[in-house]
Amino acid sequence: MTKNSTTSNAATWTGTVPVDDTELAVTDTGGPGIPVVYLNGQFATQGYWRRVVADLGAGWRHITYDERARGRTSGRSADYSFEAAVRDVDAVLAARGVDRALVVGWSYGAFVGAHWAARNPERALGAVLVDGAFPYDWLDEAMEQRIRKQFRQWGRFLPLLRPTGLTPRMTADEMADCNIELGRISRERELGPVLDGITVPVRYVVASGSSLGSRGDEQERIRTSLDAVTARNPLIAVGAKVASNHGGVLKKDFAAIAAAVREVAALGGERN
Fold first, then answer.
1. pLDDT above 70 (res 7)
2. Which of 48, 104, 160, 249 lies at a CB distance of 3.0 to 4.6 Å from 207, suitable for a disulfide?
């Protein structure tokens, strides 16, 4: 079920964590530093975080994992719901013996991180939310149909990319369902109360411009919803507005994300 990594750091553990009907590929650098768990974009993999991990360095305990059917080794599942994604955070932390952690999420992972932090105030040291978890009503019937059409068009190319681990082992319809569910979770009446209820330090790192599948200034309009969030909850603030777009933020602005992690950790320490 597990194996120890011997490629880079003798303390680093790599293996799989069983959860429900599947297993998740996990990497844990170990050590006495503050545990930081990284939550991926909707169809991304743990490798996207390597620059942030490197910038923070060995003084932290970095825990990354591939979500269900993502990456090369995480198994398929009958449940790709958002609630399953939130539960999987607990499963990974429990398997690695971590009681309290700082969560860092990008895109879809930002929503997971926000919900996990709101539900676990005694366990969350804080959260860094990277260009995601904006409470905005962007999903309507026309958008839902657009999403389904878009994923069906992409679906013909997915089998060619799956051996690389760059696309999930999910059908086009399963991927569309995940994206549509996210639209429902994003609604102000759904996400707003979650963010209002967070009682730990949160810093947003906000990208600029468009994201894959967005049109015109859609993404920038969605980001404006943060103004009301930060006005209502003084624990939440925008740590940085960076120049890179949604897809490039982890690659180009990793230093800003690492800086936000350090800031949140310091603020969490003051609370304790």
1. no
2. 249
